[in-house]
Write a structure and sequence with these properties.
heterodimer; A: alpha+beta; three-stranded antiparallel β-sheet; B: alpha+beta; 6 helices; 10 strands; elongated
């Protein structure tokens, strides 16, 4: 929550509900990233994030066993271990941090973890001061 | 030296936080304490009086099963009451401004002063048209099945209802615990009732029914 020193533009990527209410973000390339990040890189990032969320919400044997085991221990086990969903959310956060560090920050763009916004939107901060390096 | 401010300290909704932000409850939690007291007192009386007789004369598994059920009930109750029901964080000022801007673009003939209220956004979900309502307090378009709780002043995902007995909203993230609480509490009630009946029947076979009642905790209201 730092005070913004430099002017920022914010782009909000909405959820893509075309396949149902599962967590999935629109892969449409925003105009504001023109000249900073190329289309393929951006789409690859978003697709990876969507894949991770799909994997988190998929009904698998692992999730089933985890839920049954947690229920049998009266959910006290959940105080010690993270569920698969929570682990995947952490994975998404780490992936976004890594993508920001390697690709986006050097071009003055920052992707904000959707978990910070209640999985409603994926916020993109574009600094208006930094000129694109490439 | 800047002190980090935790998110729960500046939370805009009407929730109360305890244990350094680990516990999240509604503002009015009085009925929750009543729920706890009722469950603990009734179970306590059951374990103190009926279990002693039944453990000797029938089987020691009776207090064991009763104990397991009681622990499950309390654990699910605490999980329901203390966890986040699925509160949607409010929109940041920039996001709200962006929404205003987009609405003004859609309405070019009414420029300036006051924008028209009550906007809905239409979204196609698997080929079906769904209207998302705009929440004026949280400044977001609510996802499908989300609703705003007026008591807690939050939008909650898959909002079921605000339960005063549990002292919290029931929504997507604590629905499972709420349902299991209700289920296990019903089982506990039926179990205690059956055991108490068994107790009275067995005792009245040894003596008569009146002596059986006198030995059980039921005598306390009558002696007062």
């Amino acid at each position: 929550m730092d005070a913004q020193q430099s002017p920022h533009t914010k782009v909000f990527i909405q959820r893509d509900f075309s396949d149902g209410i599962a967590v999935k973000f629109q892969t449409r390339y925003p105009q504001e990233l023109e000249g900073r990040v190329d289309r393929t890189t951006y789409e690859r990032t978003i697709n990876n994030i969507n894949e991770m969320f799909a994997e988190a919400e998929a009904l698998s044997t692992r999730t089933c066993c985890e839920s049954c085991f947690a229920c049998l221990t009266a959910y006290i086990a959940l105080m010690c271990i993270d569920t698969y969903y929570e682990k995947t959310l952490k994975k998404v956060r780490k992936y976004l941090e890594e993508q920001n560090q390697t690709i986006y920050m050097s071009r003055g763009v920052m992707l904000i973890d959707p978990a910070e916004r209640g999985l409603r939107i994926l916020e993109i901060d574009i600094s208006s001061i930094d000129t694109p390096q490439r | 030296m800047a002190k980090t401010v935790r998110r729960w300290e500046v939370f805009p909704g009407r929730n109360k936080f305890y244990c350094n932000g680990r516990i999240m409850m509604a503002r009015q939690a009085g009925v929750f304490y009543l729920t706890c007291a009722l469950i603990i007192i009734v179970s306590g009386l059951f374990f103190a009086f009926d279990c002693r007789y039944l453990a000797e004369h029938v089987t020691p598994a009776i207090p064991a099963i009763g104990g397991a059920l009681f622990i499950f009930v309390m654990a699910t109750l605490f999980r329901t009451s203390f966890s986040d029901p699925g509160v949607i964080p409010r929109a940041s000022a920039e996001e709200a401004a962006e929404m205003e801007r987009q609405n003004e673009v859609a309405n070019p003939n009414s420029p300036g002063t006051y924008r028209p209220p009550a906007r809905t956004k239409e979204v196609v979900i698997k080929g079906q048209l769904v209207k998302l309502k705009y929440c004026f307090t949280c400044k977001i378009f609510r996802p499908p099945r989300a609703s705003h709780c007026s008591l807690c002043d939050n939008c909650v995902e898959r909002f079921d209802h605000h339960c005063p007995w549990v002292g919290n909203c029931v929504g997507k993230r604590n629905y499972r615990y709420f349902y299991l609480f209700i289920l296990s509490l019903s089982l506990l009630c039926i179990y205690i009732f059956a055991c108490v009946l068994t107790n009275l029947i067995l005792r009245s076979q040894d003596d008569n029914f009146v002596t059986a009642m006198k030995d059980s905790p039921a005598r306390y209201p009558f002696t007062l």
